[in-house]
Amino acid sequence: MTRPEFYAMIAGFVDCKPSAIQADSNLEALGWDSMAVLDFIAKLDEQYDIRLSTEKIQACVTVADLEALLGAHVTA
Amino acid sequence: MKAAVGAIEYHFPEGLLTNQQLSDEFEAWSAEKIAGKTGIASRRISAADECASDLGVAAVEKLFAGGACRRDEVDYLILCTQSPDYFLPTTACLMQHRLGLPTTCGAIDFNLGCSGYIYGLGLAKGLIETGQAKRVVLVTAETYSKHIHRADKSVRTLFGDAAAATLVEGVESSRDLMGPFVYGTDGAGAENLIVPTGGLRRRTVVDAPEDTDESGNVRTVNHLFMNGAEIFTFTLQSVPQCFARLQEAAGIGPDDVDLYVFHQANEFMLAHLRKKMKLPEEKFYISLADCGNTVSSTIPIALRRAVDEGRLRPGQTAALVGFGVGYSWGATLLRWTDPTRA
User: Fold this and answer.
1) Residues β-bridged to residue B136
2) I need a surface site. Which of A25, B29, B114, B328 has the fewest CB within 10 A?
3) What b/e readout covers B142-162, taking b as 16+ CB neighbours within 10 angstroms?
4) Does residue B27 sit at the A interface (CB-CB below 8 Å)?
5) Do B276 and A33 touch (CB under 8 A)?
């Protein structure tokens, strides 16, 4: 997925506009909660067949941290 | 002699916990959001002095009242619970006495959660088809609410208390009416759904301090803890594999199953599993709105409701999959036989 698609995905989970998402946005400040984590896991599994370590997802602080976990799955 | 499910009854405690009540207690946890995510509108909660055995006895009494069998015909009682009345004696023994079952009746407890119904059916089939018993009553009964901290919205939202009683009896049949069974266990996931204290490894801590997690949920070491994300990830991996093993063991394809009855964990998880496994919506049974996740009772409650609604008819085959705490999982096929008795 592209970075704009990734940001749009994150925005959908926290009910904000994609334009509000920046690389250094603090996930907690965006409203990223345990339900958002489940949405994220489900979406990656369903649409992209990607499975990440739950522990690593839960340790992410910023949007960039999440993107880094996805590595090559997100393209600029 | 083949083991078959003859009848299913269930019982809920009277206490009610609605989404509105939860939303009144927890800021930013709206009733609509809860219903939308979980598919649950309300849960039934046991009274302070109401235990799993009380719920279980009420469910079994319904079997007798409905004419499924007489109490003197029961020769084995199996109770699946993780909220027993005592360490000892065995809760099933107390239930044998309260139910007036013969003293020639065997009675055991086993400790499993959301996979428990599958394991219970497997045990009952083994007892019947090896000639050890003729009529087994399998009870699943939980009062998880007693393990849950009042300020932990994550698990309080999901779990409800209930019991179900299933009569498994031997019938003359040329084909299997239950099975094959496939099982799975991975104790590496134990810490992700656990009540850390209260057993002998770590006794209940008096005046245990309250911890608040990053989502604002409060609990102590004496309460149920669930890492929802880990449980979800485990489920996405184990359930499709488990069902594939069942299909292989049974030599069946997708069209050979008339109704899928999975453990009713929550609608979010079930909807995702259904899509992932490409199962048709019309064959995928969901019923938890009025009771939540009742642990080992979700499958028998759903089965009974599916039969009542005509979604599972005599001669049809249901695929049952249970999964959860342990981790533990299992699956089987159930051929529904007698419409008048359930």
Assistant:
1) B76, B168
2) B29
3) bbbbbbbbeebbbbbbbbbbb
4) no
5) no
CA-wise closest residue to B81 among B57, B35, B116, B50: B116
Give me the DSSP letters along A13-63: HHTS-GGG--TT-BHHHHT--HHHHHHHHHHHHHHH-----HHHHHH--BH
Beta-bridge partners for B38: none
Annotated catalytic residue within B93, B114, B242, B291: B114
Q: Taking a C-beta distance cutoff of 8 angstroms, is the pair B293, B266 a contact?
A: yes
Map residue B310 onto helix, strand or coil: coil
d(CA B116, CA B245): 18
Q: Which residue of A has its CA nearest to B29?
A: A35
Q: How much of chain B exceeds pLDDT 90, in percent? A: 92
Of all helices (H) and strands (E), which one includes residue B148? none
Interface test with A, best of B29, B231, B233 (most A CBs within 10 A): B233
- Look up residue B150 and give its DSSP letter: T
Instruction: With CB atoms and an 8 Å threshold, state whether B268 touches A38.
Output: yes
Q: Would residue B105 show up in a list of annotated catalytic residues for this protein?
A: no
What residue has token string 């036989």?
Answer: B337
**pTM score, whole prediction:** 0.95
Residue B34 has pLDDT above 90, yes or no: no
Distance (Å, whole) CA B268 – CA A36: 12
C-alpha to C-alpha distance for A41 and A24, rounded to whole angstroms: 21
Interface of A with B (CB under 8 A): 28, 33-35, 37-38, 41-42, 45-46, 51, 54-55, 57-58
Reported ipTM: 0.87
Question: B168: alpha, beta or left, given left = phi > 0 and alpha = psi -120 to 50?
Answer: beta
**B293 belongs to the catalytic site:** yes
Question: Would you give the end-to-end CA distance of chain A in angstroms?
Answer: 9
B187-230 pLDDT tens trace: 999 999 999 999 999 999 999 999 999 888 999 999 999 999 99
CB–CB of B79/B95 below 8 Å?
Answer: yes
Is omega for the bond preceding B180 within 30 degrees of 0, making it cis?
yes
**What φ, ψ does residue B191 adopt, rounded to 5°?**
-70, -10
CA distance B82 to B195: 10
